[in-house]
Amino acid sequence: MGExxxxxxxxxxxxxxxxxxxxxxxxxxxxxxxxxxxxxxIVMGLDALIHILLAIGTVLxxxxxxxxxxxxxxxxxxxxxxxxxxxxxxxxxxxxxxAAPFEVTVGVALLTILVFKYGQGRYFKRKYLNPxxxxxxxxxxxxxxxxxxxxxxxxxxHLELNLMTAEGLxxxxxxxxxxxxxxxxxxxxxxxxxxxxxTHGWIGGASSLVxxxxxxxxxxxxxxxxxxxxxTLVTMTVLAAGTGLYLGGDPILxxxxxxFTGSVIFLIFFMATEPQSTPLxxxxxxxxxxxxxxxxxxxxxxxxxxxxxxxxxxxxxATPYLDKIGIKTPYGHxxxxxxx
Amino acid sequence: xxxxxxxxxxxxEEGGFEMDISMKRESIDDPFTEIPPAEKMIIFLRQHIxxxxxxxxxKGDPVRYGQKIGDIENGGPMVVPVHSPVNGTVKAIKKLRxxxxxxxEKAFIIHxxxxxxxxxxxPMNFMGNSREELIDRVRExxxxxxxxxxxxxxxxxxxxxxxxxxxxxxxxxDPNLACDVRLMMEKGQEMIQGIKLMGKxxxxxxxxxxxxxxxxxxxxxxxLLKKNGIQISRIRPNYxxxxxxxxxxxxxxxxxxxxxxxxxxxxxxxxxxxxYAVSKAVLDGESLVSRGLTLYSKETxxxxxxxxxxxxxxxxxxxxxxxxxKFERIAIGSIMMGPTIPNASYPVMKATSGITAxxxxxxxxxxxxKPCIRCxxxxxxxxxxxxxxxxxxxxxxxxxxMIKKYHAEDCIDCGLCSYVCPSYIKLTPHLRKASFIAxxxx
Lengths: 340, 442
What we know:
The complex is a heterodimer. By secondary structure, chain A is mostly helical.
């Protein structure tokens, strides 16, 4: 019929789209993390800026090289836009402890972009592990081959802490004491410092308050997997409060320490919600979040501070299995046994 | 349009995703314009869900406006006749590609001789005819559901189960359509009569008029509903709630079982435009040979048109001072669920509630497809709580066990999962295939 007519494109429905694509999503995430980076540089100083720039720069150089090579070879570029590599670089920068040597940051950034972003995507057709977390875990494991002290190159003092007693926790807080809010000049208690102004630990967690606000806005605006955020935060808080009550001591300090250290608060919002390596099903997201909190808490008590990345990598590996459970009962089956 | 309230500008879907309805808003104030028939009309012998009808006239026969030209004697309840939309002559009966099934199916080519619209059937009396006579007229007039599904209306009206509620679906949730609201504004009286006739045929006292319009948006029609004792049920401005099964849940809080239909929970749902067609068939003796539709394109803006079935879309576009050659894609019906046509010579059919033409500067966004990032937007927004991406993956690896486990058969084909996908993946075709597999495997 109508062969003389001009041909039209044939397409399956739908014919319109909401307009929020992956690149926009990544760029918006990057912009939100820029606010956290800005706060971190204010709190932690120039070193924080150098870490962040080194991480982003390394990732972008590698991405640009691979992109140019792919174009030169006539291969479809893996990432046509630098948005996703930018986010990966920023996460590496913000997930580094301020005390880390700069070369470690470069090493983590290299592993992130080469092995766990490009490599993982290419060979597994999906990113099972969070690239930044997996890179950091891998690098620390490699460094730990010689001695554990090497692996804990930037926080060997953690091994001497005793978080299993009220006194031990109190004595461990020296690192968060003597912080003073600039301009106002108020001296902060360790709990206040953990919430507002930390010069120790992950760069991204320099101000838990900023992470909480920016993270909550991002989660709402960009539809992050909020169930993971809520369940991890709630579980960590309950565990910390429970431990505080059981072991004695200041429960507020206990909660502040376990929930607001940078390795926890930044990871919960911006790493544990990474879409590809976390569960799709709603109930599994709760399971993921609760398990992440329990594992992280246990590692913290064992002095593996920053162990949240280890917990995250373990749960990333469990994600394909978690996706098989917790399937909602669809409409039309609610009256029957239904579900899966 | 007189109103004392602000219109709805977005539909808010599950998870807070917003659907832009600017196409609808652009069309809603445009009154119906009647498009005269084309010189050559193309009438497919199947314009409903069910078997293809058989020609009742042959090449060279003269036909009258509204005359039955295709049917099957004793063909079963799923057969709905087709009628001539013009006074003219049958020029040919040939196999053409059907715009919906995409299969070769029989169609009449009718040469239009005049534009007369004298009804073919005798008008019936509201009170003086039995339920069976009324239902028979609905069938004889070729009425199908005009919301897009084309389900035989007489079949839904002859439901023998006890029905507690007749729900009139005026949700018109598709973001490109405004013709139902226009019909409420312009043909309110006839529509009310159609609704009452449907109530009589179903022996139902409780009639609910389900609409997303706000109070005061269609004031004249609201007064008519009130005067006739028809209750208005204002429902959430979500796109997918317009689906028949979900509408029953929304309005009556009754869940239609999987693979079941609304009568199983005591409800029957009819589209508002179908009610108008029933009124015209019974009270005026009019066959279903024309309908209201919304045309939208950046070239023409939003327009509500009254078009006879069989009118080539190119003719409709020409009457709106444009041509199919200016467009890259033309979608018929809903832009969320309707197919595209390969060229503009395809005709308007009973299910054509809309024509949306995209210019060359509006290429399909789905051409930018990327790998899935497993963000979960698709399952967040899914109105029937299934997992589109998991079903797609199972379908790709032909994993029938998982297709069943994920209840692919419950997909209502709404397209929302594709609409929100940040990787621009068209999940809908995979879901359709999976749904077919799941239904076949039982």
